[in-house]
Description:
Blueprint (H helix, E strand, L loop, with lengths): L8 E6 L2 E6 L7 E7 L6 H11 L30 E4 L10 E2 L3 E3 L2 E8 L4 E9 L5 E9 L5 E6 L2 E3 L6 E6 L7 E6 L3 E7 L12 E4 L9 E7 L5 E7 L5 E7 L6 E3 L4 E3 L3 E7 L1 H13 L12 E3 L1 H4 L5 H14 L3 E4 L29 H9 L3 E6 L3 E2 L4 H5 L19 E2 L5 H19 L2 E4 L18 H18 L4 E4 L9 H4 L4 E2 L7 H11 L9 E4 L13 H8 L3 E4 L8 H21 L3 E4 L6 E7 L5 E8 L21 E7 L18 E4 H6 L11 E9 L1
Amino acid sequence: MGGPSPSDVVHLRRGGTSVVVDLGEGRLPRILHWGDDLGDLEADDLEAIRTASQPTIGDSVVTYPQPVPVLPLLAEGWLGRPGVAGSRAGRAFAPLFTAAAPTPVEGGVRSTARDAVSELDVEITLALTPEGVLTVDAAITNSGVDPYSVHALEPALPVPDRADEILDLTGRWARERSPQRHAFPVGAWVRESRGGKPGLEHSTLFAAGESGFGFERGAVWSIHLGWSGNQVLAAERMPAGTRLLRAGELLHPDEIVLAEGETYRAPTVYGMRGDGLNELSDRTHRMMRARPSHPSGPRPVLVNTWEAVYFDHDVDKLRAFARRAADLGAERFVVDDGWFEGRRDDRTSLGDWDVDRARWPEGLAPFAAYVRDLGMQFGLWFEPEMVNLDSDLARAHPEWVFDAGHGPGLPSRHQHVLDLGHPEAYAHVLTAVSRLVDEVGIDFIKWDHNRYLLDAAHSTTGRAGVHAQTLAVYRLMDELRRRHRGLEIESCASGGGRIDLGILARTDRVWPSDDNDPHERGPIQRWTSMLVPLEMQGTHIGAEVAHVTHRTASFDHRAATAFWGNLGVELDLADLDDETFARTARWVSAHKRFRALLHAGRLVRADTPSPVRVEGVVARDGSEAVFAYILDDLPATWPPTRMRLPGLNPDAVYEVTELAPGDPVPDGQRPPWMAAPLHMTGRVLHRVGLEPPLLDPDRTALFHVVLR
């Protein structure tokens, strides 16, 4: 091929991020730089970057580092995870693509390439959002006559050699998104989700950065896959020195088989970066808030009936419950599980979406109207993708239940999975839910998903159906929102089991965990917020004795933990004493006062040693902030750390006062500066900090910071 032209190297520059892409030599795109803004670069500068990126190669390109294409290929000397994997009945397993001239797109560039021998075409689009988030979209098309089975289409983003530490998240039910850190090893660190959803153990944040990187400092890069089904995330380091972050859909054998002319489009890979995790997550939050579909207006304070009544639905009690919710200042009332025919526990009737007339003699519509007359929206719980075998639906249509040939598989929470890839099953669910939205007047759906998809196969063919199920769920949500303008949906999956940018494109709220214990919930919310902005994160005030952990927590600590999100209340309001009710109302009022700030400002966390957490939200113009000082356990020494407040305008003078919707910090625990409003510059508040209050364990103190 002829020598490269200046247009062979492209500089994408947006939102404080630069991406330099080499499109020369007829190869797939290779990223030479993904990181800090490099400023204005001329063609000569870009050519110099390409020249400086070429390694010294001896007798084998396999042995020495080189810029690796976004889809690494075995045929080009890559010995790690292939970017394209598949075959045509055993053939065409190692494609070698020749790229065509790139095409500009909004914020980026698109490259198409062909392998005439393998009869495959690929398309790769790299783009930067205005906030500096890198998106990668890849597609593969079968241009041959014989079918082509796609095993993987897995883009890779390079990180520099100073990214020598990995941070990802793990978890379980009621303890989602627990961080774990370790050195970036030679080889591959691979996280897989095989349960038909990202899962409770999903690494919502998958990052590599400089050793010791934290919230406030240290270069860090992260990837996220915008997909709500099976997936794989990987960090890969080769002996030759290349370091990559990878993401793609995890496909079952022959789940995607392309006929001639058919295309498989991989889920979008998102690349976020920053100087510290605060900057990284803020890019994501700003990207999400810029979407036309992002929930707008004040996020309604919600009351949910689940932990208050569970399956015990009594219309008179729930009317009293709703009246108290309205008196509290709630703006949305949600009836949870237990409203449909025969549903007395979680063993029966799932899938039979008919209102239980024994409990609701007049149906749900009059009650929903009653709720609206009280000034609140009406919400209802569904689990549209699931079915109990003890249900009219399963008895009438056993072929609609996933079955790989050994029956419907292991039960989980006494339920199985409805195959929405079956057209009749999909139509049944769409019709049933849509009818109720119309008849009842539903404003909000709590959409649950409590069972993993294990041996999830179409009963008629035995072929894997997870990919089709994920797309069917997307279509179902999209169609419901199209039919019912203004309908909002919350993603719940045994708590936080399905939180990703695929489902977030179709929902307005997520439920981070079934655990309302503030000792556990605080860290869960912290790490959920690496992806999810606070206005989309449901945070509820639960019972004094947590229903999951049975730990006892003070009211103010429970409320202060729920304060940071889309506030909800899950207390039994009908039986709540007057003093606790009044205390709850004060917290609801405080949240309403500050939610415009909480739901639009910049979320910051200070780098503090355990057991201390310092978190806050700072207005975009720096005019105001709210901070929390949280003590999760009894420290071995006191004070464990100064209370430093990041994110403020360093040269502005601020006034700091305690914000106490509940009880203020007791006199014996207050440092002297809390006796009167304190005035300090943002720089001093961050660099020097304040003596913290002598809190008891599992306590929170809130502070209001305003420009003087």
